[in-house]
Predict the structure.
Amino acid sequence: WFLDLARELEKTNEILINDCTPDCDLILCTSVSTQGKAWECHEKFPGIPIANYVWDLYEWCFTRPRAWEANYKKYGQLLKESKFIWCSSRATKNRVKEFYNLDSEVIYTFVPLFEYDTHDGGYIYQPLREQPDRDWGMLEEVCQEIGIRVVTHATPYERYQEVLADCSLIVSPLYEASTGSLSLIEGAYLGKPCLVSDSSYNGGTEYLPGVPTFKAGDKGDLKRKILEGVEMTKPSLGYSVKRMACEICSYISPQVGI
């Protein structure tokens, strides 16, 4: 769905996807997973400036990497050679500074909202993929103790929409989560209450200001908040793809002539 950003930028600029020509004004890398193509373009045309959008950057990527983990050392070098570094949240911006000693700017991503008939299915939705986060599994332990079902990271998209619309509560429990999960915004838009870890490396409180929180890593506090119940948080509707495209253009236009 991030191609929606390319389509929006294309309204005022010529965009090439996974390609580069000598007359390009900018190489935009939108994820660590696409750094290979960015390096290929950079090595072919070293004079074209690079911009990187850093979705997430976690401590465990360096200390407890998975077998298939991206090469974050090489990614750091790509960031060092970039003219622009934009991050999805202050949480990510802080990690970029800590791990690479690089300054960056925050551009909050757009969120594709949708309409859906909602119900209370009596379960908690945990939207994040399994990862070696220090707090992974804590929510499942708590819910097992109190007898509440947890549904984790539902796919495909059609099932995800139904699961989100029918949950009783959305919880972003991890110590590190760049945006907290965009499901927080989508769910809050549908009227679903949300609960987020108060870790400074969980961006959920940035994307959903005023959202109820529990103390990071505190199993007892998480249990109390779930049992007590949390109020719905009204989401901002300012996360449009047009807004994100305009922010990107506001950075690059004066400097590279786009």
Observations:
- The chain has eleven helices and nine strands.
- The CA atoms of residues 169 and 178 lie 20 Å apart.
- The first helix runs from residue 3 to 9.
- The radius of gyration is 19 Å.
